[in-house]
Amino acid sequence: MARARKAGGGEGAPAWMATFADLMSLLLTFFILLLSFAEMDIVKFKDAMGSIGSALGVSPGGTGMFNNSTSPVSFNQTPSTPAPPAAPSAVEAVNAKAVNEEIAGELEDLVEQFNLDEDVEIKATKRGVVMRVRGRMFFNPGTADLKPGAQPLLETISTLLKKFPKKIAIEGHTDNIPISSGRYSNNWELSTARAYSALKYLQEYEEVDVKRIHIAGFGDTHPLTSNDTPDGRAKNRRVEFVFQEN
Predict the structure, then answer these.
(1) Residues 149, 195 contacting (CB under 8 angstroms)
(2) Is there a contact between 128 and 169 (Cβ–Cβ < 8 Å)?
(3) Which of 33, 93, 160, 170, CA to CA, is 20 to 30 A from 180?
(4) How many domains does the structure of the chain reveal?
(5) 3 state DSSP class of 233
């Protein structure tokens, strides 16, 4: 005869299942909190915290990480950008203008003193005060060797550089007539060599800090006027000294 089954159920779930279920509940609560933070909805967050507090028998308040507050925490999600450089003040602008006027004034006095108005032009530009010197005053055709007549102008430039904390650009220019013979193979080389000759004089004879000087040779690419006439070509053959804005 078959033995009768024993009344009642089995032994039930093992004890670790209760601990596992509690852990799952805590993890679910943790992710609900994370979701509340991500949405930044303070009303939902407070409702969730109230429900959890009631379930755990914890009263609102306290000083913990989840302290109840009527003021939501402000999060700035916009990356900060560096402040733009400050614009020159009115005083600095006035001082810079006064310095440029003094530089231009001293150069104009020199032009008048040596009667150089046909060969030297002083001009105020956005780049700074520019002194344009016709090539014939500084150099013989096709060469980059300074003439003695260049000395007074270069000495004045040296004095101004020692007096004011300015940087200067020395820029050589030519006309569009190709060089047919001589030391330089093209106008680019000639214009650069002429700018360098002026720099070398300021360094060796006037002891000007060459860190404040840069040179460039533009050949015939920056004409002042047309190269179709002898007078136009003479104007385009020049060296420019630019007292740069700081």
Answers:
(1) no
(2) no
(3) 170
(4) 2
(5) helix
